[in-house]
């Protein structure tokens, strides 16, 4: 390019162009492709190469491509490189493996940048510090009269590095400030008779969302996270599973439903009969509902940021946009028709436990990549983020795979 040509491209414009090109590459070819697209931009000329030193550019790239908003390394460029290398480790099967052992039966997990929280059927929550694999605390819900043997079982956890929120099947919600010696504070007293069982619980920086089963027309409960005020109750998604919801209080049955919050102020929920997207800002309005002709294996369902994965009873996994259920890709999980599959997803990969191993797919194109598993035995919960995969097995072992860049 000529010198005159260089002069007509001011740096802010080149920054915007680099951002757009990288985002377009990540959407069309996958997040790892953004780095190659950026390299081509930076090679055009010295003026364009100078843009590679812009910390603001790398901050925007890290936020848009890796959905990372907190700076954990020296610069945003280093932050971007770290998550790129970590995603590449997922692609190429590079990880370290550890186990954590506990007696109570595992029920549900949650991950943050530095912590892992594991909830159990006896109502307790174990908190671990991931960088050192240390157990930090054990939390218990407030005691009260319970309706059913498993009414105290943890049904969902919301975890950040400063706060832990956990819910039980009977609808109680407790809040813990991490690092504070105070016991859990009960933020909401459940009413299982009028609401049914709280079968799943999740949230974000703005909302807490509960999925209930047992009482018709009360499937979704939405709270304002800051005020802890209940702002919406309604929905019929779990009405066909009402009886199963009550059974959960007294016996361990199949998973009734799951719900996840997306990055677009919506929540996507799943039962064996259908998927449903609701608007969290507008009183739980249904954005999209999609019945399943074959039936969905609820334990296979998960959503992360803007993507969901669910496997039907014939073993077909559909990767969809979480805001409108538009299909992005699909793949086959062989053996899943036996309903033994347990699944999760992160920003680039889908993980399905089946037959004592975890199988991994690239969700951008549906390509099968590899399997891993250190004799996990039967797994009843699995979760992933952009660095870790965690599985809880029936022998009370917590399996931790760390794909973080070294």
Structure overview:
- WD repeats lie at residues 385-406.
- Keywords: Repeat, WD repeat.
- This protein is α+β, with helices and mostly antiparallel strands and 406 residues long.
- The chain is 19% helix and 41% strand.
- It has 8 helices and 28 strands.
- Strands 1-28-27-26 form a 4-stranded antiparallel beta sheet, with no helix packed on it. A 4-stranded antiparallel beta sheet has the order 2-3-4-5, with no helix packed on it.
- The longest helix has 19 residues, at 11-29.
Features:
4-stranded antiparallel beta sheet; single chain; 2 domains; 406 residues; alpha+beta; disordered N terminus; 28 strands; 19% helix; globular; Methylamine Dehydrogenase, Chain H
State the low-pLDDT regions, or none.
1-6
Biggest β-sheet description: 4 strands, antiparallel
Q: Termini separation (Å)?
A: 38 Å
Number of beta strands: 28
Helix-strand blueprint:
Elements: H1 3-7, H2 11-29, H3 33-42, H4 46-50, H5 55-66, H6 76-91, E1 96-101, E2 106-111, E3 115-120, E4 125-129, E5 134-139, E6 154-159, E7 163-168, E8 173-177, E9 185-188, H7 192-195, E10 196-203, E11 207-214, E12 220-224, E13 230-234, H8 242-247, E14 258-261, E15 266-270, E16 274-279, E17 285-291, E18 296-304, E19 307-312, E20 316-321, E21 327-332, E22 342-345, E23 349-354, E24 357-362, E25 367-372, E26 379-384, E27 388-393, E28 397-402
Antiparallel strand pairs: 1-28, 2-3, 3-4, 4-5, 6-7, 7-8, 8-9, 10-11, 11-12, 12-13, 14-15, 15-16, 16-17, 18-19, 19-20, 20-21, 22-23, 23-24, 24-25, 26-27, 27-28
Helix pairs in contact: 2-3, 2-5, 5-6
Keywords: Repeat, WD repeat
WD repeats: 385-406
InterPro entries: F-box-like_dom_sf (IPR036047), Quinoprotein_ADH-like_sf (IPR011047), WD40/YVTN_repeat-like_dom_sf (IPR015943), WD40_repeat_CS (IPR019775), WD40_rpt (IPR001680)
